[in-house]
Amino acid sequence: MQRRKTRPVRLGGIIVGGDAPVSVQSMTNTDTRDVAATRGQIERLIRAGCEIVRVAVPDRQAALALPDIMQNMNVPLVADIHFDYRLALAAIDAGVDGLRINPGNIGGRDKVAAVVRAARQRSIPIRIGVNAGSLEKDLLREGVTPEAMVQSALRHVSMLEELGFYDIKISLKASDVPVMLKAYRMLADKVDYPFHIGVTEAGTVFTGSIKSAVGIGALLWEGIGDTVRVSLTGDPVQEVRVAFEILKALGIRRRGAEMISCPTCGRTRIDLFKIAGEVEQRLAAIDQPIKVAVMGCAVNGPGEARHADVGIAGGVGEGIIFRKGRVIRKVPENLLVEELMKEIDIIIQGRNGDEGF
Prior knowledge:
Strand 13 (310-314) and strand 14 (318-323) form a beta hairpin. This protein is of the alpha/beta class. It is 38% helix and 19% strand. The chain has helices spanning 35-47, 60-70, 85-94, 109-121, 146-162, 177-188, 205-221, 236-249, 272-283, 301-304, 336-349, and strands spanning 9-11, 14-16, 23-27, 52-56, 77-80, 98-101, 126-131, 168-173, 196-197, 227-228, 257-261, 290-295, 310-314, 318-323, 326-332.
């Protein structure tokens, strides 16, 4: 795929756009005023691989909590602001790395100008966040359309450009995947600013992951997208994991383990559903790239999964461990998961010297 050319924007210690890798971000769902809870969730997000964290700043008390939240934090923090430009100024004073605003809902041009001046002084980029659910009334004559979303984005871009501000990212989020896709595609031909992509209000972990994989995956495959968020109703750590799975599936990023498993058939004589679930759970703690196969039978196991770094395949009450298609040993069914994890540890630690990464 050919990546869309975008101008790079610095967000704390991360570059978004340009030749930088597609980054993964999430948003806390704690009360930002609760410093301990918010820091705890951010730490969990970072361990899962999150590279940019956004927090809601609904009031001044939340803004005043930001310095304590950011203390010794090693990922960029973005403040999500709505309606009150003074909260944006307070977040900037607190030292955030970026802002997410909708310039049309934080006040008149003079208030937007005040935010832009402060952001420019601190070299803080602004994400123009267009959301299908909150478009300006004059753009809704024909309902929520991709054209209306693009027009809203261009209106806000022009506002910032007229103020001499160009450290801009843009998002065009909708819960309707076709609307979201068309909006991003249309805007991609009109500006060179980096895009934050995602399907907003995607749903629970199950349905939201599917919608996000379709929407985000389609855009990334077309080379559109510089940073992503999978918006799920639930633990935001799941957002990070799903985002990396999407990137891995497209060959864009490799972080953590990738598990492949067969759909099973009548040849399967082990409890593959249980084993696959256990392996997937254990692999969640691994942050190094490794491909792991969990296959139902020896007929297809090493052959179909020979591209995997390591894998298991079932037999009758037992199974085999294989690496790159080469059978290493047989083990009883009840030891398959443990023996597989031992082999993964050997590969990661490089004790064999043939890990193949």
